[in-house]
Amino acid sequence: MDALRKASGQLQSYLPSLELNQEHHRRINEQIGEQLSVDEVLQHPEFPHVNWDLKPDRKERIDVAAGRGGPFKLSYELHGHGVKKIIWIMGLGGYMKTWQRQTKDFGHTEGNKYSSLVFDNRGIGESDKPLLRYTTFEMARDVVELLNHVGWTEERSVHVVGISMGGMIAQELALQIPTRICSLNFISTASRIVRTLPYLENIRNRINLMWPKALGDQISKVKADCYSAQWLKKPDETESVVKPFPTNGDRFAAGELTKRMTPGAFTRQGFLCQLYAAGFHHKSAAQLKNLADAVGRERIMVLHGTEDHMIDFVHGKMLLAELGGEESGVTRSFHDGMGHVAPFEIRQKFKTIIAERIEKTERMGK
């Protein structure tokens, strides 16, 4: 516990003193109106089915990080058996089930075309949660070991999709194995954090979410940080097993509650260790130029929403510019009114975007 408080203190001291009850929390909660309480979500008939029973073609827990703090176990699932290989890298506090929409869309609905690799980063889900100083560099090395294990080692064979902290890990991955990457897709991420108030307030809130407070308040804050009010208040758009939730926000709450109620999946130690990695991720303009040179700018996409309150939109614009901008061949995919989580908010459009990226970059050859 002392080590956790020290890590939290380091992150807190990195941030200025800020009002925790941000104006955008109040504004978004006013805009979305009344949503189900925690008890109402738990009692909803769809709650037991919020995580779908998607059978993987392969599932293992493998040893990674021997000689660099490990070995410890990393859990993964491989869905589908197509020749087009996609690895999905999740963000802070998210586990592989958070990708279930994309797992279904690519690894099941089109499982003959795609192989979809999802996994739990160190610190979350079914992977181990060692008490170490996590960095995005070391987490990318975990990913390299996973790719080696499943045999995805050929040049220009892997399509990388990384969201938020997962996009930071994807940057490190691209610097470590640039020629193995066919397409590199950065979703709602940053090369380094500039001092914009929304992000700094939110990251402080994420730290404070790990200390005792009402669960409903925790869920409410995550909603406001990560999703647009317009999407949260819409009727549940996701396919249901028994009965839809009243709103998209209620379904998100059900998924978040399921994660937090699964024994050992979401721990204070693992979360703070991941948060340390995300908070101190830093790639300079020169490093991004080297990344783009090595991977190829035509293979890179930057996708971001203008209403992202977790990693402010300025970070997407900065990342695009420092990779070389559209004029150099980098694909820009900016979305007005969208929040932090494109795979939820624009699921069908997101599927089309990723599928088109795969087709375009595979036509480029090696």
TrEMBL record:
InterPro entries with a match to the protein in the record: AB_hydrolase, AB_hydrolase_1, AB_hydrolase_fold
Domain of life: Eukaryota
Pfam families, per database record: Abhydrolase_1
Cited Gene3D superfamilies: alpha/beta hydrolase
Every AB hydrolase-1 domain range: 89-312
Protein name as annotated: AB hydrolase-1 domain-containing protein
